[in-house]
Write a structure and sequence with these properties.
Elements: H1 3-25, H2 29-57, H3 62-85, H4 91-116, H5 125-153, H6 166-186, H7 192-209, H8 217-239, H9 242-265, H10 270-275, H11 301-309, E1 313-318, H12 320-324, H13 328-340, E2 344-349, H14 359-366, E3 374-376, H15 377-380, E4 389-393, E5 424-428, E6 448-452, H16 455-470
Parallel strand pairs: 1-2, 1-4, 2-3, 4-5, 5-6
Helix pairs in contact: 1-2, 1-9, 4-5, 4-8, 5-6, 5-7, 5-8, 6-7, 8-9, 11-16, 13-16
Main location: membrane
Enzyme class: translocase
Organism: Streptacidiphilus cavernicola
């Protein structure tokens, strides 16, 4: 090993340590930006160090360097453009696309080794086993993430799409992956094995995500993120690169833990999510718990403003409707006005509110909402009985009292106890359903008033009305 290669190995080890520390800093929103910057900086150093190693070895030709430089410039440009231009409403789709890119990139590494090796018959299990796992996991991630992004964007219907034979594929393909892996290990010189695994994984990725409804998308995004990390770790084993192994393992482990937490927040197992069938499109008139027609109590902006202006404690419950209307800044302005008037305001954030893990936290941080005001479900639920007003802005299924009784699609799902506040105000454009496809019984509660408006326009009207009352 040359002195340059030894130095590069130490640099990559230091970068891996920075990945670990950066992830630790992301435990708190106060330090998350520093953690993200540290991890990004470590990755930049790792890329430069790898380029130095390739230069020292002389294993890359002039054309190869051109491809590497152009590829790095193009990828960096796309990432920078996406970070600066994509709206918060499209962030879940962007995360899914990044998962697809990560999984697809990880797949190319073992394919190059398995199909381009000058001595394929000499490849041992140290390469073929992680290589086969990388091909399967990375390709499933690639295909599944593209379908998930399509569902989130609306180009693919958000409802569960269960096509004939979907269940059979879900049962038959995993054993086929095992057989393909054994085939590859026993005959590494056969190019058909990795290509068959690639084709089967593409089918499985599509078949896995299509039957999953929109309500489960936060869990799916988190799971696919874990898949991406696992595929990258397998690529690290193929190349013998510790930095890739550490980075991939961190993403895989953290994504797996997050997936479990998200599923627990919906009172559903990860297996139940992957079976699919939860979350439908639909609308219709509201009905009460007994099945009869139910009535709602509409409110005007002045009606709501009076309640807010004379309240002592207000709990705001944000949901995807807030993100869809891009109304986070208007909500922040309204809250600042109430606080200046002496009203105590906090935010109740459900773990699966929005369309990806942490969606509401990121959205509210964009509006400079102080982190101490953001309260998780377990912390804020005991406070609802003391709240004069619970202001629900675009949240639906996570506030539905039907979750407390059996026989509904959301039965057993932990919810925010909004209906236990002294008064409830819901800002919503219509009585349309959430992703679970059922009526929200909160809307017909006698203590609930419905302010029918787009979240952004409604909050602007409320702010003006509250200002008129408080002077």
């Amino acid at each position: 090993m040359s002195p340059v290669e030894s130095a590069v190995r130490y640099v990559l080890l230091a970068a891996a340590a920075c990945f670990v520390f950066g992830l630790h800093l992301m435990n708190s929103p106060r330090s998350a930006r520093r953690g993200n910057a540290l991890s990004a900086g470590a990755m930049a150093v790792a890329v430069v160090a790898t380029a130095v190693l390739l230069l020292d070895r002389g294993s890359v030709t002039g054309t190869g360097w051109l491809v590497l430089v152009l590829g790095g410039a193009f990828g960096s440009g796309c990432g920078l453009y996406a970070a600066r231009s994509v709206e918060m409403t499209a962030m879940p789709q962007l995360v899914s696309l990044f998962n697809a890119v990560g999984g697809g990139a990880a797949v190319l590494i073992p394919l190059q080794d398995l199909l381009g090796s000058p001595h394929p018959a000499a490849l041992g299990a140290r390469v073929t086993v992680p290589g086969a796992l990388d091909v399967v996991i990375g390709t499933v991630t690639f295909a599944g993430s593209l379908v998930a992004a399509g569902k989130l964007q609306g180009t693919v219907p958000g409802r569960p799409l269960v096509f004939p034979g979907a269940r059979a594929l879900a049962v038959l393909l995993p054993p086929a992956f095992v057989a393909g892996t054994v085939w590859l290990v026993l005959t590494p010189d056969q190019t058909a094995a990795p290509l068959v695994l690639l084709a089967l994984a593409l089918v499985f990725g599509v078949a896995m995500v299509l039957p999953i409804g929109g309500a489960d998308m936060p869990v799916v995004i988190s799971l696919l993120n874990a898949f991406t990390g696992t595929a990258v770790a397998m690529a690290g084993f193929v190349l013998g690169e510790p930095a890739l192994i550490v980075a991939g393992a961190l993403v895989g482990a953290s994504g797996t833990i997050l997936t479990k937490l998200m599923a627990d927040a919906m009172n559903r197992s990860v297996a139940a999510v992957m079976v699919g069938g939860f979350g439908t499109d639909g609308g219709g008139a509201a009905t009460d718990a007994g099945g009869g027609a139910a009535s709602v109590r509409p409110l005007s902006a002045d009606d709501v403003a009076i309640q807010l202006a004379y309240a002592r404690k207000v709990i705001v419950v944000p949901g995807y409707g807030l993100a869809a209307a891009r109304a986070q800044h208007e909500l922040g302005d309204l809250v600042q006005l109430l606080e200046a008037h002496g009203v105590e305001v906090s935010y109740a954030v459900h773990p699966v509110a929005g369309r990806m893990p942490g969606h509401m936290n990121v959205l509210l941080a964009e509006a400079d909402v102080p982190y101490p005001q953001l309260k998780e479900m377990d912390e804020v639920n005991p406070e609802f009985p003391q709240a004069d007003v619970a202001l629900v802005v675009g949240a639906n299924d996570v506030t539905n009292p039907a979750a407390r009784r059996p026989g509904t699609p959301v039965s057993g799902m932990p919810i925010l106890d909004v209906d236990r506040a002294r008064s409830v105000v819901v800002i919503k454009r219509s009585m349309g359903h959430g992703y679970a496809g059922i009526d929200n019984e909160l809307y017909t509660d006698p203590r609930t008033g419905m302010f029918f408006a787009d979240a952004k326009q409604g909050l602007i009207e409320l702010r003006a009305a509250v200002r008129a009352f408080v002077g």
